[in-house]
Every structure is written in C-alpha cells, then in structure tokens.
Fold this sequence. Notes:
This protein has 1201 residues and is of the alpha+beta class. It is built from 45 helices and 44 strands.
Amino acid sequence: LDRLARGTVHLHPSTYSIPAANLSKQQQTNSMAALPPALDFAKTEEEICAKWAEEQTFKKQDELSLERGDEEFTFYDGPPFATGLPHYGHILAGTIKDVVTRYACQTSHHVSRRAGWDCHGLPVEYEIDQKLNITHRDQVLEMGVDKYNETCRGIVSRYTKEWETTVTRLGRWIDFENDYKTMDPTFMESVWWVFQQLFEKGLVYQGYKVMPFSTACGTPLSNFEAGLNYKDVRDPAVVVSFPLVDEEGVSFVAWTTTPWTLPSNIALCVHPAMEYVKILDKKADKRYILAKARLSQIFPIMNNKKKWKPAMAEEFYEVEATYVGKDLVGKKYQPVFDYFNDGSPESKEYFRVLSDNYVTDDAGTGVVHQAPAFGEDDYRVCLAHKVIEKGNDLPCPVDSNGMFTEQVPEVKGLHVKKADDNLIKLIKDKGRLVQKDNLDHSYPFCWRSDTPLIYKAVPSWFIKVEEIRDRIVENNKKTYWVPNQVKEGRFHSWLTDARDWAVSRNRFWGTPIPIWCNEDMTEVVCIGSVDELAELSGVRVDDLHKDVVDKITIPSKKNPGTELHRVDEVFDCWFESGSMPYAQMHYPFENKEKFENGFPADFIAEGLDQTRGWFYTLMVLSTALFDKPAFKNLIVNGLVLASDGKKMSKRLKNYPDPNVVISKYGADALRMYLINSPVVRAESLKFQESGVLGVVKEVFLPLYNAFRFFVQNTERWEAKNGSKFVPSKEKVQSTANPTDVWISAATQGLIKFVHEEMAAYRLYTVMPALVSFVTQLTNWYVRLNRDRLKGLEGGESESETGLQVLYDVLLDVTILMAPFTPFITEYFYQHLRKMQPSYADAANGGGATNPTMPGKSDSVHFLNLPAYDESRLNQDAVEAMEALQVIVESGRNVREKRNISLRTPVKCITVILRNPSANVVDSINGPLKGYILSELNAWDLVIVPKEQEHEWVTLALTPNFNILGKKLGKKMKDFKAFVTSMSHADAVACLENGELDFEDLTISAIDELISKLSFSREGEHWESTSTPEGDVVVAVDCTQDEAILSAGRSRELINAIQQLRKAAGLDISDKVEVFFDESPGMNSMETSVASNASVFEAKFQGAVPVPKKFAPSWSVVLRSDTVEIGGSAIEVSICRPAVAGKDGLSSEVEYFLSTLEPASVVDKTNLAVTVDGKETTLTQGEDFWVNTIAKLRATKAMAWV
C-alpha cells in the first residue's frame, strides 16, 4: 500500500486492455476481427478463390442465368498454345475477356465461356523435334508417324493445369471442365466439314507458291506468321556480273542480299520504262549495263552530296550507250553457275532478260536476278515470261531443312545462310564479283524456332482468298473494333491486299487435309465427315490424325480396282483456329440451332498481332462459308513490354514473374493496372511493377479504409442507439445535405457512364472513371463528413443519414466494379449484404436461387449491375462540388507557397470565379461554405462578385499560337503586343463581345485567344494562385496573430492525440482522459487549450486536455509521446478514464477509488468504504468525482475548464 501510495505500484499494468464495459456490444462479440486495420489483399483473394471453388460459384452463376432464360451473349475465346506458361500478354487479353463477359453476365445475359487449346502445329512439333533431336523429315518417317504423334499428344496438356491455376487465381471465370481441344475428333471433323464446304464452292486449289519457309521446322508459314517476328540483321550484299552472250566484254550487273540463291538463277529482270546505260568503268576497265539512276551502287561516292560533283563523272566512268528497259528484254547472258545450264528442254528458256514493273530504282542496280524457287516476284515474272511452266519442277537445290543438295556439290549439306561465304568465294574466283558489302536490315524470323526464314517454292493447297476478297472487306465493315483505327487502318490494308491462303503444311501433328486422290490428280474426293469416310472406304475411325487416316484408301469410281490415297499434307493450325466457332460446337453435326442463333459472335478480344492471325482467319472462313463476319465486336489490345521498352524475354529475365506479382499485390491490382493503361487502346505498355503497387496504394487502400470506417461507425451507431442499422433508400433520397446529394448524383452519373461506355466496349474510358470516383468518395465525401459520420457533428440523426448514403454508394459501386475487380468487391459485398433484410433468405441454400438480390444472393457476381436513377442525377450539385474542390486544392497550394501548416488557421480565403453560375455561387456561399472553411482551416470565405473583380484580378489575353499562326503569319508579333497590352476592362469587353478586329481580320475571342485571370491586389499579407486554365483565383490573407497561432497549436495537439489513440488501437467510441506537460515556465499550450476548449470537447466526447499535474496518481497511461507544438516540446498522454479524488485522501481510500470504473459511480451520491474496521462515507462532488474534468470544474482549480 505504501508503494501504491507513492505511485510505484499500479493496480493495472501498462499493457492494460480496455475493459468490456467501455466497448460496444458488437466489439465484445469480436465482429471487427474480420476487418483488420490493413487488409492483405493477396491473401484475401486466395481465400475468396477457395470459397468460390468450394461453393462452385461460377457454375452457380451460369445455372441461375440459364434458369432465368437470359439472352445469349456469344463469346469466342481464341485457343492459346498449351506448350508454355501464361505471360502478361495472355493475362491482359484474359482480363479484357473476363471483364466484358462478367459485365454481360451481370446485365441479364448468359455467356458460355469455354476454355480452348490449340494443340496442333509447329509449337508442339518444334518442342518434340528439340527433345528427340530431330533435324530432318526422314527421321520422323523412320521413327514412325504414329509414335511421333503419340509423343506430341503426350505434351499437349503438359501446362494446362498451370494455366488453370494462374487463370483462376487471376479471377477469370472460364470453363476448364468443358474445354475444347483442336485435337479432339469432334473438332477435327468440323474442320473437315469447313474445308469440304470451301472445296465444293471451288475455293480450293493446289499449286506451287513461294512462301515464307522455316528451315528449322521444315514447313512453310503463312504471310501473317512471317510478319510476327522481324529482327534487325546484317547480311552480305554483293554485286555480280552477268556477261552478255552476243556482246563480248559487256555485262549486266545485279545486286543481291541472298548470294545463296545465285546457283538457282535462271533470268534477269529490268523495268520496261526505266532508263539504262552501258558504261565503261575506267578504274576496273569493265563495261556494265545498269539503271542510270543506280550508278551510285557501283560508284558509292555519288551518294555523298557534299563531295560529289557532276563534273567528276568522267573521272570514274564513261556512258557509251543508253537504253529503255524494254529494249533489253530477250538478251541472253552467261549464268554465274552452270548447275541448271544442262541443255534440258526447260533450260532453253533460261538465262535471258525479262521485264516487270516491280523493279525499282531505290536500291541495287535496277537489274534483278531471278531465282523463281526462292522469290515470289521471281516466280510470277518467270511464269509470265514462260521461263518456267506451271506443273514443272523448278531449279531448287535446297531441301526442306534449308540444306544444299548434291545439285550444288561445292556446298552440299550446308545450310543456305551458312553457304553465303563459300559461294561468294566461288563467284570471286570466277571473276564475277563486282562488289561486296554488308547490309543492315529488318528480316523475318520463324516465330517458333527464332531462326531466319527463307522464301521457297512449295506445292501447297490454297484457299482462293483473292476471289472473295471484296466480300471479306465488306464484311469487315459490319464489325465494330476498339480502337477503330486498327480496323480502318492495319486490318483494312491487310484485307485489301489479301492473297490466296496456303493452308497446308508438310508436317505430321495436325488435322489431315481430307483429300483422297489418284496419282495424277484426275480423280479427287474431299471428305467432310467421319460418316462419309466410312461410307466411301468401309472403315470407321474415332481418331482423325495422320497416322490413322493415311492407312485408309477409297476405291476408285473412275478406275475400278485402283485406290485413292490421302494427300500427304496436314492443315496449317491457323485454319483450325479460324474454324473454332464451328468446330468447338461440333457444328453442323451437333448444336446446329444453338450455333446459328449465336453467330456471329457478340464479342472477341486478342492482341494486335492477331490482325494478321486469328482475326484474319476468322473473317476469311466466315465469309467463305456464310458471307458474314465471324464476330460483331472486338477489342484489340497492344503489347505488354518490359519496363525498358524491350520485348519481354524469359532469357533476359527482364520482367517480374506474373505469379509473384499476384502473390504480392493481388490479382485485382494487376487487372486494374493493365486495363487502366494505354494497352487497351492497342498501344504498348511498358510494364512497371511499381504501377501495380500504385493501384494498391492509390485505389484499394483508400477504398478499404473508407469501407472499414463505414463499418466501424455503423457498429458505433448501433451500439449508441440500441438498434440495428437497416439500409433505407427513402432516407438516402430525402437527405438535403449537399455532399450527400452530390455523392449520390456522382454515383448515378458513374453508373450511367459505365453502362454507356461498356456498351461501346471502351474499357479505356471506364477504368479512369472508376478510379476517379474512388478518389471522390474517399478523399472528398468521407473526409468532408468524417465527424458527421462519427456522430460528432449534427448528432446521431445526421450520422445515420450520412451512413445511409455511404452504404448506398458503397453497395452500388461494389456491384458496379465487380466485373473489373472481382475479389475486393466480393469481400465488400459479403459484409454489406448482412445489413440487408433479405440476408435472412440466404439460409438453407436460398443464396443460390433466383430471383437474385443484394443481401440474399451469395455472391456479388450473381447480381445485376445497378441501373442509374435519372431522378437522382444532379448536375448543379456536381458543378458546385467541382468548384469546392478547385477552391480547396488551390487554397492548399497557397498555404504551401507560404509554408503555412494546415493546422494553423488563416483569417480569410478570397475567391474569384470566372463567370460562375448562380447555382455555384449560392452553393459556395451557402451549404458548402462550412466545408471549405473546415478543409482550409479558415475563419472566413469571400466570393468576389463580378462587379468587384477588377479590384482583385487582372484578365490577360494572349494569342492561341497553334490556331493563329497560319492566319496571322508575320502579323503575329504585332497582334501579340496588341492583345497583351489590353486593360482588364478591355479584355473583359472583348470576351463578352466574342470577337476582336485586327487589321481587317476577325479574331474569335473564344477559339483563337487564351484568357487567364491573375491576382493583382497589393499587400504583403496576400498570397494567391490561379488554376492552369486561368478561370479561378484563390487568395489567402496570411496575417498571423496570437489568436491564429493559438488555434494552430490546438490543432497540432488534436493531431497528436489522434495519433496516440490510433497507436493504442482504440475505437471511435473508446473514451480516454488526456493530459499534457509543458517545460517549466511555459504555458502557451495551456493558453491555447483554454482558448479552444469547446473544440476539444466536441472532438473527444468532452475530454478536454488538462495539465499532467492534475492527473490522479493511479491513472493508467495507454500511450504517451513527446511532440513539438509551436516550437515547444509537449508531453502528451492518453489515459484510461479514472475516478478522481480530492487532495489529501488516505492512501487506502485512494486505492479504493483506483479500483472503480467511472461508469459505475456516475449516479452514485455517496460511497461507503471500510478501512481497518472504520467506515468512511465519500460524497460525490466533495470527496470524489467521475473524472478529472469534473473535479476541476467543481473546485474551480482552472478557471477556463
């Protein structure tokens, strides 16, 4: 007891936790445990994922939609290759697809969302070839196609589980159980049907075509595949001579960057109208024929405009003859190599000069060497001039792996790209090398093997795209693209120049081309189904792969006793993905009506690279089959690049692992970062991990804090009023509070905007609007109403009204954001739903039934998005609030300029608004005035009337140089001097007039002049700022007197107390006593508190801070800190509420008082205590008081209390 009396023993330790008597009922039942101060978003998402999986939420949503008979919304998901893990490109496209399909589902549509896998083609074969070290086609045949295909089949689904895990964790809802694979027999059968339809329409033919060719994969690629992977390379560039047969000592000279094609040269080509010259090269003493415009190729000095003078020409060359290109046609020349100069009938047409308009004078010599097996134009020109004939073999000494054959023995077995140096040496040894250099240029590489492509003539099966090109272009006009410029630009250009599509590949793992024929192709049968194949061959199969169907023959009808065999090729996998709309549904063998009712698709989305890929093949096949586009609406996304702007590379490790990013910040943050970026406008995005963190900090944390603040204050309100908080639309719509009216109007405006923009598939406008609204809600509405929502301003009635409005907004925004951020909205909804009366209906499975409604429904994703209420749109309220925000933000800027803390009040804010509406002025002077004063900690606010503007500001005019530059020309300088010298009155009159005359020119004051207000009042005590637009000026009277400084110190102390409460983990309703201690001889803090006691009483439920010397010796300190206020060190302590006793009580009585809770003695007049058998009566108001403030008031120990 002695130690207790001296204050060395406390009844309660300093780790004191607030007793249950001081806590609300909800807190006592631990309801706040579900809302931690800082939410781990990623962990919470994982828990929601698990909940969705356990409750089969996605499946339930689909079932509810089907049960309601919702209108079908058709979505096609382009099949990705399942041979690699998903990257940011997949995540981006997947997020866009998920947002749009979730939105459709939450606007009364049913959406089938089936996952699909592209199982065939190069990606799989290339991996197997690498694994088995296969470098040549013959190795596969030796191994057995059946074994090779089985190996391919074995890796197809290797990564599907990883895909499912990542995609599901991303929050994307897509059906993996009911997925489709391009290797499924049903899918392949529909592909056969598609091809047969084209065949029967005469749109299929076989022919040679020079195509991009991957020597690493041993197969041709389509033109759009060739465009997927260009790289900058350095190639040898040589000029070679071709001596004329009939003119000794004269040679054509041709330039090429592919020396490896010279062994296959069989012609030269000139432009028929270009001017050519025969020259004597004086230094080399050689005579050459080349284009006059290309002499600089032989004499590079001519390219140096500073050094080259026409008079120098005679030093280098002499022109001996001039020709027009057509005059050279037919001339014979000697080839560089004689590999195909063998006297055969075909070679009689070789080695002569041809002409064609494709020859240009922008590079080379104007003479182009022709190797028709390795150049598309070469093949066309040689065919047109009958150097070669259709159906005949071409001079082609290169095999399918890019190796030279025995036809060129010097480089036999060498890859063409590696043979260049050997061939150049051979050319030099023959005396035919005129020039050797290097060329840096962009060159196509195989998108799968990352090796250089060559162009090579191959026999192929073609779709006659050119024949239906006009219809494709017309059908494209029926589609809607975001952004539109991709449709009108890149895609339209590609379509208008579309060429016949080579759809066959000389590979093994793919859908076989269903053509059976005899050896000379005089009898051809195209099969369109398994039944048809069984009917014609007598063999029924359940697998349509090459190793199975190649064994099947069909008896010839033309030549009984002979058999038709299937052609060797398989389909290009792009033909399969283009057939996906039909094949995924096994159309027309099943789902005929369902498909036809949902075609074309309502929506597809992929990356910009698919303009030459999937978008193109979809459009070609849908036009050929039905003369329709395959889709109605399309979102094209751009590329996601590494932070340095380079392509993301696993090898370089120049980007963070998507799974790591999701585990750190959550999928919602990644989703919002991606779709709130230029990448959804088909532009590139340099991925920054800091950008994902920014979404968490700037959007989710403020939103969560606002949500948690709402829940805390709802619980406080329930405890205070002893009743349940029940959402009421009537109370929301009847409020007259200007911020309530504004936030409700802004919410309805947001709902309206989201529906309008999503109908137009403009995600890039929706996301900024959502982000901006979160800022409006958290930074403005909640902050402006913080004390009101706490019940500290306007009483509990006003608190409930504010909470009703905040609940209404939170629920609407939660549901509205659900398609975009599915996790955090689910989290919010699960708390918000419990306040709805219909929540009781969720019991016993009711939450997964129709009709869906907030509260009853088990998931936010079961609900329809809110429709906007036009009656609650209020443009006046929105405009007034915009003005308030401009004034407040400008006022803060002014404070920063003068380095005045927000805790220090200012005397007056003066605002000048350019042509404000009466509504804005009335609102700022009326109901919004108090908010502005509070936000800027100001004592007065003045809106300057228009007639007094000239006393405060000057209106300045300047020319809009961008618009007036052409109009005024040299007069601009004089005009600028004229308008900038105008007085305030003249400038105002000019704007009111709307135009200005200057030297016979009429200048529009609205469009061609820039106007700006600037502060002009004199006085050191004024500080001001103007908005960038120059239409608002805010000036602050920065006079600082003792009253101002005192109020500022009080605000500093209030902040210190709030920080201590937060550090102690106290709730809003938890009461404390506050004590402060100043340095000896100082009393500025006490003076400030005395002057502003009413502020403290209102802020802290009557707990006015008092000097520490008045604290009972038994007070328990919860938190204490020393802070600097007004230049002095002040010790501030928050203590557990304690009963106070009169001075001089015995230590035993003090001990007794220390055990009492203040709440237990409020209504006690007397207390009896027995010490050592002697009873003492204590009287409230004489011997003890309920707290220290009550004691000080009663004893008048401090006059200001």
